[in-house]
Amino acid sequence: MGLSWSDVIDGVRSLDVPREDIVLAGSGPLLAHGVIAEVGDVDIVARGEAWDRVAARGDMRAGELGDHYVDLAGGVQVFSGWRGEPADAVIARSAAVDGVLVASLADVVAYKRRLGRPKDLEHLAALKRWADVMTDPVATARRAPEVLADRVEAGERLAPVLAALGPARPTVLALPRGGVPVAAPIARALSSSLDVLVVRKLGLPANPEYAFGAIGEGGEPLIDERIVAAADLLESEVDAVVAAEHRELARRVALYRAGRPALTLTGRTAIIVDDGSATGSTAQAAIAVARTMGAARVIVAVGTAPPDVLAMLGRHADRAIAAMTPEPFTSVGQWYRDFSPTSDDEVLAILRTSD
């Protein structure tokens, strides 16, 4: 008989060591996220004092890749590192589930692919099915809507799903400013660089919210000539909007990049992140800009969006996911308890921390 999630939680707590110094690894994260129903044993990675205390309780043995481990009662194995990586690195990418730190699903995918046992292949197949369900707009809309605590929680919900997708050569791109705190946990879980993608919509002079195109860092304006024709815009009007938005784009790029190297997306998977998308216009513009910058694949990840908007973004991107897709949908902010504005100082602090 296998171990349930409650059994695993009890096993972790029974170690009686600081919880911030231990992380559930192996198949445990799949159980924590509901990908599988049970596990046969419990793999835990410990660091510092936690490792010292656990190591004193049993016979310490050498692992295959330079780490050490101890066998404890109840099918628990505690490791000083994981598959050649130090415990600190595994913990840095982890996230809490029910008060227990669990390894990033990106680490689980790499581990399962490396071993390739029948059990691992079954788990990878289960993870793919789980990711498909978690990224399906109709399926997510059926779940009871829950208000997100804040932008960080949105990122923590999105991170395991994105990790399960196993994107190749990912670059996490936040749409400033609100997308930056959402993107930070995602970049950490994927061991990816975090950057900003500064995009400006080109709005009709009479209705700035209705875009006839977009402009992004390092790219030429993307203009929908059909909308320009339908709105009967003069060339001079188009040029004036482009010039104004180009100035604002340059100002924001200078502020947020602050000496950082120019953004390069050639051959990479661009993961565009925002706190929400009520109409999809900004995210759609960002998708177009990322593609013109050479991204091989584009994934959109937002905190919240209406199901139809998420489905529309999925048609323009290679994939689109949301932490929640509630209805009725009036605004992004209604689905956050804390939707206070993200300041430029916060954006710059998060970007510095991620370097």
Automatic annotation (TrEMBL):
What GO MF annotations does this protein's record show?
glycosyltransferase activity
Cross-referenced SUPFAM superfamilies: PRTase-like
Query: InterPro entries from the xrefs?
Result: PRTase-like, PRTase_dom
Q: Which ranges carry the Phosphoribosyltransferase domain?
A: 169-302
Answer whether the UniProt record assigns the keyword Repeat to this protein: no
Sorted keywords for this record are: Glycosyltransferase, Transferase
One Pfam family recorded for the sequence: Pribosyltran
What is this protein called in UniProt? Answer: Phosphoribosyltransferase family protein
Signal sequence residues: none
Q: Which CDD domains match?
A: PRTases_typeI
State the superkingdom.
Bacteria
